[in-house]
Here is the input.
Amino acid sequence: MNGVRQAREDVAQGYRELGRLGLNFGSAGNVSRRVEGGMVITRSGTTVDATAEADTVWMSLEGAARDDAAPSSEWPMHAAILRAFPEAGSVVHTHADACTALACLGEGLPAFHYMVAGFGGEDVRCAPYVTFGTPELAVVAVEALRGRTACLLGNHGMITTGRDVKAAVAAALRLETLARQYLLARSAGTPRLLDAAQMQATRERYKTYGSAAPARG
Here is the structure.
């Protein structure tokens, strides 16, 4: 139970943080965190400015809620992602402006900046539009996340995953920043894209980034 209590606190705090950062508004988006035997997820209808631990739902990944409150309508998507990617400890979904604008163009985020490689590949894919809260949306989201830790959802928003809620929220902020920069670059001209070799070199650098102190002379 202690793990569930901590997960409730983490999820509620993460959802509020998305509002503070301007990545969500009102009751848009949702946050989940893996726990033994399932997940904790924001409840349906909770808002970014008032979410507390009581506004979360403990449930299995098959949809059996252990609380009286109704989970977010996007719980099938969160559950499918957590089932498909055991390394993911948390899933964040937002309707952040720049990511949503790009998703409404039906486009992913290409290799315009080396930091795109931080999401696991040469781009961040955009899943096709599917009605929210449906099993079909869960399927296309999982497919768009293969080999990645983030994706866009066509005409909808974005998803990031992380080892914990804090990491997934940080990834969401990073993805939104990159999407905004990409749209700014496009408004001024045609961004130069990095090639596969350049992105692979970046991914190799990321494997050791921050892991060791520089040598002292």
